[in-house]
């Protein structure tokens, strides 16, 4: 059984005011989780395919748009959910997973901004040194062609030294901020679990 056989996702975008519904279809509930993670199920990592589907589609929607996850599963077992209600178990597990992802994204963003601050201090210090040397060379060797080239090299070096902090503060932190906001929203995700037996009973009643 391949990974593509065991799960399928469909997305209902709906109107702007309505939540976007991501539907995840599984044969067994344990396929939602990473089987290699030894943590208790409620704290386990999600299966790589399930995470890619859910997080990937969530990133497609505006941060302000609510998202609802509808999980269709053929069967579940008490060995996975324990004494917990399957609905509560699945929702808590998914929320815990994305809460951990949000904390990781927040830590990554904090580290990036700290790197930007250190890079900025180093870049400014290097720029001051380069400009000071350039002025000294201009005074000592005002008519030297070689000195002029060296001064140009120092000017270029100033901007090269500032490239990294400029890149971080102008562009680097935006993707992390978006992921952080998405993961925070998904840590409060509304999850609905539909068992195959419940669906069949509903069809029979209808």
Structural class: alpha/beta
Q: If you compute it from the alpha carbons, what radius of gyration comes out, rounded to the nearest whole angstrom?
A: 27 Å
Low-confidence stretches are 1-6, 199-206
- Overall tally of structural domains: 2
By DSSP (H or I, 4+ residues per run), the number of helices equals: 7
Beta-strand percent range: 5-15%
Mean pLDDT across the residues is: 79
Q: What is the number of strand segments?
A: 4
Strands of the biggest beta sheet: in what spatial order? Answer: 1-2-3-4
Label the overall shape.
rod-shaped
Helix content, binned percent: 55-70%
- Cα separation of the termini: 34 Å
Strand/helix succession: HEEHEHHHHEH
Main beta sheet, described? Answer: 4 strands, mixed
């Amino acid at each position: 059984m391949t990974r593509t056989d065991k799960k399928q996702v469909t997305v209902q975008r709906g109107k702007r005011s309505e939540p976007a519904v991501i539907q995840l279809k599984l044969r067994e509930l344990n396929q939602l989780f990473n089987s290699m993670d030894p943590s208790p199920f409620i704290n386990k990592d999600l299966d790589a395919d399930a995470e890619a589907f859910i997080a990937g589609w969530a990133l497609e929607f505006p941060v302000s748009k609510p998202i609802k996850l509808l999980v269709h599963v053929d069967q579940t077992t008490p060995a996975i959910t324990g004494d917990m209600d399957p609905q509560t178990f699945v929702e808590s597990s998914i929320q815990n997973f994305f809460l951990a992802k949000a904390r990781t994204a927040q830590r990554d963003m904090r580290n990036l901004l700290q790197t930007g601050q250190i890079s900025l201090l180093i870049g400014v210090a290097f720029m001051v040194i380069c400009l000071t040397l350039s002025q000294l060379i201009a005074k000592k060797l005002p008519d030297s062609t070689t000195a002029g080239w060296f001064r140009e090299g120092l000017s270029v070096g100033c901007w090269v030294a500032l490239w990294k902090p400029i890149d971080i503060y102008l562009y680097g932190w935006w993707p992390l901020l978006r992921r952080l906001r998405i993961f925070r929203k998904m840590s409060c995700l509304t999850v609905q679990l539909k068992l195959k037996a419940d669906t069949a009973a509903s069809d029979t009643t209808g």
